[in-house]
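I would love for you to help me understand the pair of lines that follows before we discuss the fold together.
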Amino acid sequence: MKTLSPTYKPALRWNSLTRFYDQIMALTMREDLFRMLLLDPIRDQKPHYVLDVGCGTGTQALLLHRLFPDASVFGLDGDETVLAIARQKHAHAGWPVTLEQGLSTALPYPDGSMDIVTCSLLLHHLSDTDKKQSIREMWRVLIPGGALALADWGEPANDAMRLLFYGLQLFDGFDTTRANGRGLIPNMLYDGGFRQITQTGQVNTLFGTMALYYAVKPTYINQTTIR
């Protein structure tokens, strides 16, 4: 497998678990619900170019192609093992989604090249520094007025969710999940240049509370937009 970064961590931490990713998502994450809620705010848009960052096994990229059949849809992930699963899934479906290996901290796309960017369950794998850089990169590749739809762990909704999220932190690491659990992702989006930041929903799962966000790259950008 091609390695892009010595610190890269697969979605389920160990490559041996990657083949079970779809089954684990379906059993534990209320996947159909959270993906529907994630896409709801962008459903009526008419994009030409759409990017799913951290596309994993390609489920969301396929949903994006179904939602926007006339758009060019791209999926990017740092893990070649999971991309191999995505390619098999996409070939079987017969849908023309472009899948590429790359890192969210250095997206291989030109400035202002995407109308919509989506990202689900990626940021909690990253250090705070890489979270912020990834958000800046998603902002960079969006057109002015372009939209970001993002799903990741948020502040636990209650004590039960807090306990479940603690278990996830033991698995994924406290350093990378602390900002999520404190509800700081909207602050990072704002500092990364996004505006009209809205939490559009939340889903309680077996691993904690997932928060869904919608944000827009402003059409007018001044020097204080990005921090």
The domain at 19-216 is CATH 3.40.50.150 (Rossmann fold). The beta strands are 49-53, 72-77, 97-101, 114-120, 142-153, 195-205, 208-216. Residues 80-93 form the longest helix (14 residues). The chain has one domain: 19-216.
